[in-house]
């Protein structure tokens, strides 16, 4: 999607097998603001981050993908009864 190789990745099976997921949703605008303030990455890494990965378009696509994935997981969990 972004064309960037990501090393810090959580495997899909880990997400799919979770009993509980908590999504911290933030708009691309707010995340970019936090990035620029140095609250996510050190300021000396920002140029690389903004030029490669943290573009508005990428953040917006990733946010949409996250929300859809969580919604799909919730629907799947509702369809299959929990085994105690």
UniProtKB/TrEMBL annotation:
MF term (GO), any: phosphorelay sensor kinase activity
Keywords, in A-Z order: Kinase, Transferase, Two-component regulatory system
Sequence ranges assigned to domain Signal transduction histidine kinase osmosensitive K+ channel sensor N-terminal in this UniProt record: 1-72
Enzyme Commission number(s): 2.7.13.3
Cellular component annotations (GO), alphabetically ordered: plasma membrane
Record protein name field: KdpD
Organism: Staphylococcus aureus
Gene assigned in the entry: kdpD_2
